[in-house]
Design a protein that fits this description.
Blueprint (H helix, E strand, L loop, with lengths): L2 H24 L2 H12 L20 E4 L2 E6 L6 E3 L12 E3 L5 E4 L13 E3 L4 E5 L12 E3 L4 E3 L14 E3 L6 E2 L15 E3 L4 E5 L13 E3 L4 E3 L14 E3 L6 E2 L13 E3 L4 E4 L12 E3 L4 E2 L2 E2 L12 E3 L5 E3 L13 E3 L4 E7 L10 E3 L4 E6 L8 E3 L4 H4 L32 E2 L5 E2 L2 E7 L11 H13 L4 E8 L9 E8 L7 H17 L2 E5 L10 H14 L1 H27 L21 E2 L2 H7 L8 E4 L3 E7 L5 E7 L7 H11 L10 E5 L6 E5 L6 H6 L4 E3 L1 H20 L5 E2 L8 E3 L5 E3 L6 E2 L8 E2 L11 H6 L1 E2 L1 H17 L4 E2 L2 E2 H8 L15 H4 L7 H11 L10 H14 L22 E3 L28
Parallel strand pairs: 2-4, 3-5, 4-6, 5-7, 6-8, 7-9, 8-10, 10-12, 11-13, 12-14, 13-15, 14-16, 16-18, 17-19, 18-20, 19-21, 20-23, 22-24, 23-25, 24-26, 25-27, 26-28, 27-29, 36-40
Antiparallel strand pairs: 1-2, 30-31, 32-34, 32-35, 33-34, 37-38, 38-39, 39-41, 40-41, 42-51, 43-46, 44-45, 47-48, 49-50
Helix pairs in contact: 1-7, 11-13, 11-17, 13-16, 16-17
C-alpha cells in the first residue's frame, strides 16, 4: 500500500478506536448529565479531565456501581442557572452546591426527580423565585439547607411530605406568607431543626405547628414579620433547646407553658410587643441565655425567680420596665457572665455581695436610677457600666464605670509592627502579608459563644482545618457590630501557612470542612467571594500542566490503538468477575466450599430458604437499614442468624467478596463469627452464629427481659473491650470497627459480650497504619469528634465510642437523650471530692438501688480517659482491657472465670442477673443492620 495512504488510514483507525473507547462511558446518562452541568454552570475544575467521572479523579464527584451518588462542589465558582438536567441523576444521594454566589435563577422543578436524595445543600448561592412544590417529592430527604439565597414566595405545603427530614434551614431569604401547617411544618415530626429566621413570614404563629410528638430541638423564627401571640402549644415540644422569636411584632402574654421546656438553654424574645406581667420562668432550669429586652411588659420589681437560675450565663432585660433594687444574691449565680439591664428604672445601691460569680465579664446598667455602688476591698476586674445614673451625674464621679461601654474589635494577638502590606492584603498575627480566606460566622445558639474570649471560635476553626490537613497559619475573628449582643455575627479571616494565598483545591477542602462544622456546631459559616488574585499560583501551575497534557494527547492516541483490545479483554473479565466473583471457588475441593476461606461455607439459596422455613415471618428476628435478619437451623442443629440484604443495600459482587474475605479472618470468643454466605439468585446474605440473648442495648433498656447488675456490666465491658482489642491488634489485617455502640454488642447464652456488625469496618493496611482517610460514617452520639472533623479514622475512634458505651452501662441512658449529650453531662457533673464522684443521680436505677458499686470510680476514670478529645490522649484497647481486669481483681472477681447460664429464678450470682420474660433476641435496630450515614442519624449539636 502507498505510504501516502497508510498515514490517513492509521489516523482514521485511531479515531475509531478512540471513539469506541470513550463511548463506553459517554453513553451513560450520568455522564451526559454531568457534561451538561459542566457546560451550563461554567465548571472549570482542573481534575475534571477524561471521559469517566467515576474514575475517582473528578473532584467533588462520588460514584457507586458506576452511578453518580454525590455531587459536592461548594465554593468552586459555579455560574449561571441550574438546568433541568439535574433531575437525571436518579441514584443521587447528596447534592451540595453551596457558597457559589453566582449560581442564580430558580430551583428547577426537576429536583423532585431525585427520589434517593438525602442531602440537599445550596447554602449561600443566588437562587431566587419560589421553592418548587416538587421539593415535597423527595421521600428520603434528611438534610435541606437553602439558607442565604434570594428565595421568595411561600413555603410550599408539600414540604410536609418530607417524613424523614431532620434539618430544615431556610434562613436569610425573602420567603413570606404564613407558616404552612396541615399540611406543612407540623407534620415534620422527625425534624430537629427549624431555622427560618431573617425572612418575611407574616401572620400568627399557628398553634397547630407544635405537638408533643415532635423531635424539634431548634426553633428559629427571628427577624420576620410575625404578629399575634406565642401559642401556648409551644410547651408541648419538650425536646426544645433553643427558641428565637426576636425582632418580630409578637404581642400578648408570654405563655406560662414555657415552664414545661426544661431543656431550653437559649430563649430570645427581644424587640417585640409582648405585654402583661414579666413572665415567671422558674421551670426553665436549663436557661443559659435569656433576652426579654424591648417589649411592653408591666412595671415590676427585679424578679426574684432569677435568683434560682443556676445555669444562667447571660441576662438581657434592656427596656423591660424593671424597677427597685437588684438583690446582691443575683450576682452570686455561679455561671453568670453578662448582665445587660440598661434603660430601666432600677434604683438604690448596686451591691455585688461578697461572693459574686468569678466568671462575670460585664454588668451594663446605664440609664437607670442607681445612686450608689458598694465595692468590695478590691475593685472588680470586669466591666461595670453605670453611665447616666445618679451616681455619675449628681456626684460628678469620674470613675471608669461612668464611661460609655466600649467594645473593641481589635485583635489582641496582633503584635506586629506597622504593616507594610499592600492595600489588598492583610497582616496575619504572625506578621506576614497574605490574602486570607474570609467569611462571616453566625451563631444560632449564642449561649455557646464566650463573648469575652474570641479565641474560642478561632481555635475551634483552626483545629478543624488543620486536622483536615489544610495549611492554616492562624484564624482571626472580630465582632461585626459594635454591640455583639445585638448581632451574633463575627468576621473571620483564615491565613495560609508560609504562602500568600490558598489554592482553589484548598479553598474547596476548607469549604467542605466548614460546611460540616455547621452541621455539628452552633454556628454557620458564610464565605466571602474569592477574587482570582486571591488564589495561589498553583492554579497557574495546573493550567501549565493541562497544556502539557494536551500536548501529549497525540502520543496517547498512538498508545490507545495497541491498548484498546487489551482493555476490552480486561473489562470483560472484570464484568464476569463482578457478576460471579466466587466463580473460581470450587466447592468440591473443600468441605467448607471455599478453599480460600477455611472456616466459611458457601450456602445455596435453597439451603437457607429451607432452614428458615422459606424466610417465614416467625423467623424474622430483626431488621434495619441493611435488610432483615432471620433465625435458621442447619441440618446439624446449629442455630444461625442470616443477614439478608434488601435491594438498595446490596454491594457489588467484588465488594461483597472482599467483605467476606475480611470477616473470614476474624476468630475470637468476643467477636461474632461468620459461618458462611450466599451469593446467588440476586441474593447477598451473610450467615453468622446465632447469639441468643440479643443486644446489650435491649438489656440496658429492659426490652430483652434480662436485667443484670453492676459486676455483670463490668464483665460485659471487659468482653466488648477484648473483642475490640483483638480487632485492632491481632486480626489480619487489623480492623477499625467504626460503629461501636450498645446495639452492636450481642450477649451469648452465658451473657458474655460479642462485638458484631462489620458493615462499616475498615481494614488497616500497611500504608494506612497511622490513619485511614474516609467518608465519615457511624452513629451520632458515639461518633469520635476528632474523626468527624478530620475525616481520618484510627483505632482511637473506636476507643472513644467504647467510652460512650461505658457511660451507657453506668447511666442506662442513650448517648443523646432529650437533647442532652451524655458525655458532656457526665463530664460536667463529676466531682471527685464526693462519694461516687457525685454522680448518684445519673447512675442507672437498676444498679443504683442494688448492691454496692465496687470499683465505680475507677470505671468512670477509665471511661473519661477513653473520651479524651484528642485521640493521642486515649489509651489503646489493650490497655483498656488490662484496666478493666484490674478493676475486677480489686473487687474480688476473676476476669477469666466463665459464667454460668442464667437461671429462671429471680437471682443469679448475687442478684447480678435476672430474666423477666421471654424476648426476641434482636430489636428493630438490630446490630446486624448496617449503620447508615451520620446525616441519617443526626441528632443535634452536643451542648
Amino acid at each position: 500500500m502507498d505510504n501516502k495512504l497508510k498515514l490517513p488510514l492509521l489516523v482514521l483507525l485511531l479515531n475509531c478506536f478512540l471513539f469506541l473507547a470513550l463511548s463506553q462511558t459517554a453513553s451513560n446518562d450520568d455522564v451526559e448529565a454531568l457534561n451538561s452541568l459542566k457546560d451550563s454552570l461554567q465548571i472549570n475544575i482542573p481534575s475534571w479531565v477524561g471521559s469517566d467521572p467515576c474514575s475517582g479523579s473528578w473532584e467533588g464527584i462520588t460514584c457507586k456501581n458506576s452511578r453518580v451518588v454525590s455531587i459536592s462542589l461548594p465554593n468552586t465558582g459555579l455560574k449561571g442557572q441550574l438546568s433541568q438536567n439535574i433531575g437525571s441523576f436518579s441514584e443521587l444521594d447528596t447534592l451540595d452546591l453551596s457558597y457559589n454566589k453566582d449560581l442564580t435563577g430558580p430551583l428547577p422543578a426537576e429536583i423532585g426527580n431525585l427520589k434517593k436524595l438525602t442531602k440537599l445543600s445550596l447554602v449561600g448561592c443566588g437562587f431566587n423565585g419560589q421553592i418548587p412544590d416538587q421539593i415535597g417529592s423527595l421521600p428520603q430527604l434528611v438534610f435541606l439547607s437553602l439558607n442565604s439565597n434570594n428565595f421568595s414566595g411561600r413555603i410550599p405545603s408539600s414540604i410536609g411530605n418530607l417524613a424523614n427530614l431532620n434539618w430544615l434551614d431556610l434562613t436569610e431569604n425573602e420567603i413570606g406568607g404564613e407558616i404552612p401547617v396541615s399540611p406543612g411544618l407540623d407534620t415534620l415530626l422527625k425534624a430537629q431543626h427549624f431555622h427560618l429566621g431573617k425572612n418575611k413570614f407574616s401572620g400568627e404563629v399557628p398553634s397547630q405547628l407544635f405537638s408533643s410528638g415532635m423531635a424539634l430541638l431548634h426553633l428559629l423564627l427571628d427577624n420576620n414579620q410575625l404578629t399575634g401571640e406565642i401559642p401556648d402549644t409551644i410547651g408541648l415540644v419538650q425536646n426544645l433547646t433553643l427558641i428565637r422569636f426576636e425582632n418580630n411584632t409578637l404581642s400578648g402574654l408570654v405563655p406560662q407553658s414555657l415552664n414545661n421546656l426544661t431543656n431550653v438553654a437559649d430563649l430570645i424574645l427581644c424587640n417585640n410587643k409582648l405585654e402583661g406581667p414579666l413572665p415567671n420562668l422558674t421551670g426553665m432550669s436549663s436557661l443559659k441565655y435569656l433576652d426579654l429586652s424591648s417589649n411592653a411588659f408591666d412595671s415590676t420589681d427585679f424578679p426574684q425567680w432569677l435568683l434560682t437560675m443556676k445555669n444562667l450565663t447571660t441576662l438581657r432585660m434592656q427596656e423591660a420596665n424593671l424597677s427597685g433594687q437588684i438583690p446582691a444574691g443575683f450576682f452570686s449565680l455561679p455561671s453568670l457572665q453578662y448582665v445587660v439591664l440598661s434603660e430601666n428604672q432600677l434604683n438604690g445601691t448596686l451591691n455585688l455581695g461578697p461572693n459574686y460569680s468569678k466568671k462575670l465579664q460585664l454588668i451594663d446598667l446605664h440609664s437607670n436610677s442607681i445612686g450608689d455602688f458598694t465595692q468590695q476591698n478590691q475593685p472588680p476586674s470586669f466591666t461595670i457600666v453605670l453611665e447616666s445614673n445618679p451616681i455619675c451625674y449628681e456626684t460628678g464621679t469620674t470613675e471608669s464605670f461612668c464611661k460609655p461601654l466600649q467594645i473593641s474589635d481589635e485583635n489582641p494577638q496582633n503584635k506586629c509592627p506597622a504593616s507594610g502590606c499592600s492595600s489588598d492584603k492583610s497582616l496575619s498575627p504572625m506578621c506576614h502579608c497574605a490574602y486570607p480566606y474570609t467569611g462571616t460566622v453566625t451563631y444560632r445558639a449564642p449561649s455557646l459563644y464566650d463573648w469575652g474570649n474570641s479565641t474560642s471560635i478561632e481555635a475551634d476553626i483552626k483545629q478543624a482545618l488543620q486536622s483536615g490537613g489544610l495549611p492554616v497559619e492562624s484564624v482571626v475573628s472580630s465582632t461585626r457590630d459594635s454591640n455583639p449582643f445585638e448581632c451574633f455575627d463575627f468576621i473571620i479571616k483564615i491565613f495560609p501557612l508560609n504562602k500568600d494565598s490558598f489554592s482553589p483545591s484548598e479553598i474547596y477542602q476548607m469549604s467542605l470542612v466548614l460546611l460540616n462544622l455547621s452541621a455539628y456546631r452552633p454556628y454557620d459559616f458564610y464565605p466571602d467571594k474569592i477574587e482570582p488574585k486571591q488564589l495561589s499560583n498553583s492554579s497557574n501551575t495546573a493550567l501549565l500542566i493541562g497544556v502539557a497534557v494536551g500536548g501529549s494527547f497525540v502520543l496517547v492516541l498512538l498508545l490507545l490503538a495497541g491498548v484498546y483490545a487489551f482493555r476490552q479483554k480486561l473489562r470483560a473479565e472484570r464484568a464476569i468477575s463482578r457478576n460471579n466473583p466466587f466463580g473460581n471457588w470450587d466447592p468440591s475441593k473443600s468441605n467448607c466450599g471455599t478453599p480460600e476461606l477455611k472456616a466459611v461455607k458457601q450456602f445455596s439459596f435453597k439451603e437457607l430458604k429451607k432452614c428458615t422455613n422459606n424466610f417465614s415471618p416467625a423467623n424474622d428476628v430483626g431488621s434495619g437499614g441493611y435488610g432483615k435478619v432471620y433465625k435458621g437451623t442447619l441440618p446439624s442443629g446449629q442455630l444461625i442468624a442470616i443477614k439478608r440484604a434488601q435491594k438498595e443495600s446490596k454491594q457489588g459482587g467484588l465488594e461483597f467478596k472482599a467483605e467476606i474475605e475480611l470477616l473470614s479472618r476474624v476468630h475470637h470468643k468476643n467477636v461474632v463469627s461468620l459461618v458462611g454466605f450466599c451469593f446467588e439468585e440476586g441474593e447477598q446474605m451473610l450467615v453468622y452464629e446465632f447469639v441468643p440473648n440479643g443486644t446489650l442495648k435491649d438489656t440496658i433498656t429492659g426490652k430483652s427481659g434480662i436485667r443484670f447488675g453492676w459486676h455483670r456490666r463490668i464483665k460485659v465491658a471487659l468482653g466488648a473491650a477484648s473483642g475490640l482489642a483483638y480487632l485492632h491488634e491481632h486480626a489480619d489485617p487489623p480492623i477499625i470497627h467504626r460503629d461501636i455502640k450498645s446495639n452492636n454488642i450481642l450477649l451469648d447464652e452465658k451473657l458474655d459480650a460479642k462485638v458484631a456488625d462489620f458493615g462499616l469496618s475498615k481494614p488497616i493496611l500497611d500504608y494506612d497504619k497511622d490513619h485511614v482517610t474516609t467518608q465519615v460514617k457511624g452513629t451520632m452520639g458515639y461518633l469520635d469528634p476528632e474523626y468527624y472533623i478530620s475525616q481520618q479514622v484510627t483505632e482511637k475512634s473506636d476507643v472513644y465510642s467504647f467510652g460512650v458505651l461505658m457511660l451507657e452501662l453506668i447511666t442506662g441512658r442513650k448517648p443523646i437523650d432529650r437533647g442532652k449529650y451524655i458525655v458532656k453531662v457526665v463530664r460536667n457533673s463529676i466531682d471527685k471530692t464526693k462519694d461516687m464522684y457525685g454522680l448518684h443521680e445519673l447512675i442507672d436505677r437498676a444498679i443504683r438501688d442494688g448492691s454496692a458499686l465496687n470499683g465505680f470510680e475507677k470505671f468512670v476514670d477509665l471511661a473519661m480517659m477513653c473520651l479524651e478529645e484528642s485521640g493521642a490522649d486515649r489509651p489503646p484497647m489493650s490497655d483498656v482491657v488490662k484496666e478493666i481486669e484490674i478493676i475486677l481483681h480489686s473487687i474480688g472477681l476473676d476476669p477469666a472465670a466463665d459464667q454460668s447460664e442464667p437461671s429462671t429464678s429471680s437471682s443469679f450470682q448475687h442478684n447480678e442477673v435476672s430474666l423477666e420474660s421471654s424476648h426476641q433476641p434482636y430489636s428493630s435496630e438490630s446490630l446486624y443492620s448496617s449503620s447508615e450515614y451520620i446525616q441519617k442519624h443526626h441528632e443535634h449539636e452536643p451542648r
